[in-house]
């Protein structure tokens, strides 16, 4: 059963008396011919090829296949997360279809298939790139419990997020937020008009990643911390230098480092004068900054005018401009399909509706 085409053609050239015998007799006779060394080699090579093919098929199936999971609606997702209380207790492993027609579209209609835990963090910018173009995509939500027991070992590096089957050959997945974001920006025409513009977009995106995103770790880190920023004193504001004048190792407070990091983008918007960070059209770096600015201006600091307090008028105008000119992004930021925020260190999900009514009755 291991014999390949070359083996059969070899046996076909044998004398009729041997070729017409049974396969077992033919094989046994062949090993007694003067060419028995060639026969042994051909059979061994056939077995080697068979085992190699079987291994490759098994590996391809376990690494790159897109599992057909049950679907979950945006409302069901939010209910599960609030019932779970925190990220560590989440047990769901289901697919959320976004920008799809209910009852008509399925995973095969989606242009992209993401895999991530039920949180915003490293999947939010890739999702917003798709939302900016109203692109159909599937989000495979993996709760913390099934992630550690079933899913982690199937990802390229044991980390999330993952863009499944990104080359449409069912042989490759793409891991890590920045490669995924750059790939999507290129595919969706959100990465500049030419190489020069693309290089500048990448530069600003990297500045955002290394400061406001703390190199992808969290929004509460060494270079940027929203809670610390909102607690800054008037004296700290007055004594905060430009980011460009700060040494990498310095004695400034987390509040001052956060403010200096934000002011970089206010300066870029002032210089460009188009209400975009680079050029005159929406791009990857705009979407990355919009995600951070929206959380800061619209979700964290609703009690006062942050643009006036920190003198970030261009950043405030930028936020309003994106909301006005790109309604698909504005709609997504308020939609139920957006994963709820959580508070560290317990990663406890925030119920915005409960928060709203609590603050309403408090006033």
* Share in β-strands: 5-15%
Instruction: Give the proportion of residues in helices.
Output: 40-55%
* Unreliable segments of 5+ consecutive residues: 1-14, 17-31, 57-65, 354-363
What is the approximate shape? globular
Secondary-structure-based class equals alpha+beta
Q: Biggest sheet, in brief?
A: 5 strands, mixed
The end-to-end distance, rounded to whole angstroms, is 81 Å
Order of helices and strands: HHHHHEEHEHEEHHHHHHHHHEEH
Number of helices, where a helix is a run of at least 4 consecutive DSSP H or I residues: 17
Number of strands: 7
Our Rg estimate from Cα atoms comes to: 29 Å
Widest beta sheet: strand line-up = 1-3-2-4-5
What topology emerges from the helices and strands here?
Elements lengths: L4 H8 L3 H4 L3 H8 L5 H29 L9 H11 L8 E6 L13 E5 L7 H9 L4 E6 L1 H8 L10 E2 L10 E2 L1 H11 L7 H16 L15 H5 L3 H5 L15 H19 L11 H17 L5 H4 L3 H13 L1 H7 L8 E2 L4 E2 L2 H11 L1
Parallel strand pairs: 2-3
Antiparallel strand pairs: 1-3, 2-4, 4-5, 6-7
Helix pairs in contact: 6-8, 6-13, 9-13, 12-15, 13-15
Structure description:
The protein contains 17 helices and seven strands. It has helices at 5-12, 16-19, 23-30, 36-64, 74-84, 124-132, 144-151, 177-187, 195-210, 226-230, 234-238, 254-272, 284-300, 306-309, 313-325, 327-333, 352-362, and strands at residues 93-98, 112-116, 137-142, 162-163, 174-175, 342-343, 348-349. Helix 6 (124-132) runs parallel beside helix 8, helix 9 runs parallel beside helix 13 and helix 13 (284-300) packs across helix 15 (313-325). The longest helix has 29 residues, at 36-64. Strand 2, helix 6 and strand 3 (137-142) form a beta-alpha-beta unit. With 363 residues, the protein is α+β, with helices and mostly antiparallel strands. The strands form two sheets. Strands 1-3-2-4-5 form a five-stranded mixed sheet. A two-stranded antiparallel ribbon has the order 6-7.
């Amino acid at each position: 059963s291991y014999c390949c085409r070359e083996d059969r053609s070899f046996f076909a050239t044998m004398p009729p008396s041997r070729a017409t015998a049974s396969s077992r007799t033919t094989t046994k006779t062949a090993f007694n011919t003067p060419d028995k060394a060639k026969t042994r080699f051909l059979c061994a090579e056939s077995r080697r090829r068979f085992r190699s093919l079987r291994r490759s098929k098994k590996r391809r199936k376990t690494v790159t296949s897109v599992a057909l999971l049950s679907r979950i609606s945006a409302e069901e997702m939010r209910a599960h997360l609030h019932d779970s209380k925190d990220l560590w207790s989440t047990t769901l492993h289901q697919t959320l279809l976004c920008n799809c027609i209910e009852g008509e579209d399925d995973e095969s209609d989606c242009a992209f298939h993401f895999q991530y835990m039920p949180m915003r963090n490293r999947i939010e910018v890739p999702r917003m790139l798709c939302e900016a173009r109203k692109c159909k995509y599937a989000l495979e939500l993996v709760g913390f419990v099934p992630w550690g027991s079933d899913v982690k070992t199937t990802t390229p590096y044991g980390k999330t997020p993952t863009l499944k089957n990104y080359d449409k050959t069912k042989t490759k997945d793409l891991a890590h937020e920045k490669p995924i974001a750059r790939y999507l920006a290129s595919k969706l025409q959100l990465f500049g008009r030419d190489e020069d513009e693309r290089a500048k977009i990448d530069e600003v995106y990297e500045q955002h990643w290394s400061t406001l995103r703390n190199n992808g770790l969290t929004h509460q880190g060494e270079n940027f911390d929203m809670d610390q920023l909102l607690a800054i004193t008037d004296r700290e504001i007055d004594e905060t230098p430009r980011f460009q004048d700060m040494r990498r190792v310095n004695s400034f407070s987390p509040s001052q480092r956060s403010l200096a990091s934000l002011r970089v983008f206010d300066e870029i918007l002032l210089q460009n004068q188009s209400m975009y960070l680079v050029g005159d059209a929406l791009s990857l770096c705009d979407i990355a900054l919009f995600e951070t600015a929206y959380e800061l201006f619209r979700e964290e600091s609703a009690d006062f005018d942050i643009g006036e307090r920190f003198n970030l008028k261009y950043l405030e105008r930028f936020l309003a401009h994106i909301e006005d000119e790109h309604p698909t992004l504005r709609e997504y930021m308020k939609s139920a399909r957006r994963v709820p925020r959580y508070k560290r260190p317990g990663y406890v999900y925030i119920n915005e509706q409960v928060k709203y009514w609590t603050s309403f009755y408090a006033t």
